[in-house]
Amino acid sequence: MRSSAVCVAAAALALAAQATPQSDAIVVRAARLVDVRLGTIVPNPAVLVVAGRISAVGSSDRIRVPPGARIIDLGDVTLLPGLIDGHVHLSLAGAADSNAAATLNAGFTTVQDLGALDFAMLALRDSVQAGRLRGPRIFAAGPWLGVTGGICDFNGIGLQDVDAFTRRVREAVARGVDVIKVCVTGWVNDAYANPQHVEISDSALAAVVREAHGAKRKVVAHAIGAAGVRLAVQSGVDAIAHAGFADSETVALMRRRGVWIMPTLQSFSPESATAHGQALLSHMRWMIGQQVPVAFGTDAGVIRHGRNAREFLRLQQVGMNPAEALRAATIDAARMLGLDDRIGAVETGKDADVIAVAGNPLDDLTALQRVVFVMQQGRVVRRDSAGPP
Fold first, then answer.
1. What's the predicted TM-score (pTM) here?
2. How many other C-beta atoms can be found within 10 angstroms of the C-beta atom of residue 156?
3. Which CATH superfamily is domain 10-81+344-383 in?
4. Where are the beta strands (DSSP E) in 95-170?
């Protein structure tokens, strides 16, 4: 079967090339391209980029190079769409602008920031979008929503009643957040020992979802314990942050409603030798086998920024093959964010978010830790002339 990204008529490619303004055109060549939809390798690809968008994709011998176009021949590397991390905290573990730059340098051209102490991430998002700062495209949630004394009550930002949660969501929407993050349960040790423990009340969570959806914002819930994941899914959240102990009924409901889970398994690595850590991995293997929708997320800030790609090996550890793990960080994560018409694949019409790695990630997922080239919306932000660092 041939890739939809490659099956472009030669005449159409030639026409696209002829119509390309000389000053805007870039052609990126490499030894391989991953078709993330099919999970296959396309040999000797060329990607024609015009004004920040992908104008054509095909075999190098089928794309005519427009006169005056810039040619970027990367050699023996593999092209991929820019990666997407659906769960980061750029304000944690260092300066946010430096963390953003490290994330982009690692090949992640889009992230979802799921919690901070204030609304500073909105300013960072806007600065990146305006080109004043170097970083990935940012979906920002603003401050965490959680109960007073709960896991997300940082520096006293916890909330006490339904009215307080309602006001916080309304304020966040008015400030311009892209998504709402709400905390439902504690951490994995508590979730394992007390599976029925839930921090937030049913009515408060219902108010959060109602207000957010009324404002056309999605809701991501931090939920690990069985009862908390069940309540979050039944309440209508759009995604679950972290692997969790969802029961079979909840997993079935997640499949029916298309509720995503972002496992963030690397963030649990310090607890991997504990009973609760082993139980979580075992349960996540079961959930993967049940085909729960998975989007890539790392909880970067808990782990070091720029090392996001280590999560791929964790996903493989719980049963995802390399093609599935790549889809979680590309087309599936793009769907979760509602951006699948713009990002998530190297395809005609999409934003020119293109990276290159040394090696073939379909054979070895550690290749995704060896990024040598990053293009973001047609701008080259990294190119290693001497191979990977």
1. 0.91
2. 7
3. Urease, subunit C, domain 1 (2.30.40.10)
4. 108-113, 137-140
